[in-house]
Amino acid sequence: MLVTEWPKSMEAWTRTKRSLAGGVSTGLRAQARPHPIFFSGGAGARLTDLDGNTYLDYVLGWGPNIIGHGHPQLVAAVQGQIEHGATYGSGHEFEYLAAEAVLDAYPAFDRLVWSNSGSEAAQVALRIARGATGRQHFVKFSGHYHGWTDPVLVGYRGGRAGSSSAAESLGQSENASRDAVVLEWGNLDDLRATLTGRDIAAVVLEPVLCNSGVIEPPDGYLEGVREICTETGTVLIFDEVITGFRLAFGGAVEKYGVVPDLAVLGKAIAGGLPLSAVVGKSELLDLTQAGVVHAGTYNGNPVVLAGALATLDVLKREGTYERLDALGRRLASGLGDQLTRHGVVGAVNQVGPVVQCALGVPAVRTFTEFMGADTKAYDLLLVELLRRGVFALPGGRWYLSTEHTEHDIDTTIRIFGEVVSVSSPGVG
Ligand code: PMP
């Protein structure tokens, strides 16, 4: 066993590896440095690990815990339902109550379907788009992520190392992945040329490129994409798995005022419980009752939907998004100041409560610039942050919740400054 400052986590990970492949529930979590930390619980913006250390949490379960850990309203809602059963395989009142709450946030739309993860919902959206248009292919953009399934796991990090195919995974269906036409984000001429006269059912994109640098769309770009899709009869899908209920109650649709044909929601929608949805107009969504197969034993689970209703109720309180945005700005400008003060080359981006910190590059305005960041130096920095009680994601993204305070953020900025000032080898 390696020497570690987190002996109980290491012990738990070693034991977990004997039964669970890699000792982690998703491959990405194996990237955690120095090794995965095992937690015993969370409260508000804090997590406690098996060794008894407490951290300010900027991982938030990779995004979902937007109202923090153990929020009393969420806990009460889940407990209130689970006592009456975990699932019915038939209708119940939370199905419409939660659906109405989501549609309140997306007033341009009048229908949704439930599913359990962002990956699933993205598949449903693409299937609806193909069903509606009778076309086969779809456009996605380099660096944008839409889940781990065969058709969409292309052009995310540039293909599997050592392989000439665009597919990112060993074992991925080459046929399915050929449905995607991968373009550079931000170029309307390319998009117009690709969509004109081609067999393209849908354009799917992250309205803010959160998965690769937290990059906002260029001015007028979303409007341009909307126009080209309308002209060519292509279904425009916003993947709002990160941005939904996070940039505004109505996500990127509300923030940028551009209405796609379908929006895919996940993560923040249920405060940490597994839920996703596709929202849109009834003409498209009702295809799921007219030939487009959308299935799932756990779809519309009552415990999860009770939790979603409670989460949305907390989020829609007056001032939530102004506060989340202010916290995001405070963190971003604090991290940026520390980099400048200590002469460390780096870039900080921010949209609402989502922040990206990249080392070794002066700016991150494109996927290519994001890919130029020094991830090894960032990994070293993450370990130093962890040692000082700050838990953040590999890759440089930070998430804030309604439970973080200005004081938490100032503490984090001070710790970040301390870490970059000792300038761990490789940082700078
Ligand atoms: N779309 C986007 C934009 C995402 O960020 C993610 C997950 N990070 C997904 C889809 C897939 O969601 P899930 O992990 O819930 O399947």
UniProtKB/TrEMBL annotation:
User: What is an example of a GO molecular function annotated in this UniProt entry?
Assistant: pyridoxal phosphate binding
Which Pfam family is an annotated match for this chain, by its short name?
Aminotran_3
- SUPFAM superfamilies of this UniProt entry? PLP-dependent transferases (SSF53383)
Q: Which cofactor does it need?
A: pyridoxal 5'-phosphate
Q: Keyword check for Transferase, yes or no.
A: yes
> Which keywords accompany this UniProt record?
Aminotransferase, Pyridoxal phosphate, Transferase
Cross-referenced InterPro entries, in alphabetical order? Answer: Aminotrans_3, Aminotrans_3_PPA_site, PyrdxlP-dep_Trfase, PyrdxlP-dep_Trfase_major, PyrdxlP-dep_Trfase_small
Specify whether Transmembrane helix is a keyword of the entry.
no
**Origin superkingdom:** Bacteria
Similarity-based family: Belongs to the class-III pyridoxal-phosphate-dependent aminotransferase family.
Tell me the protein's name: Aspartate aminotransferase family protein
Organism field: Leifsonia tongyongensis
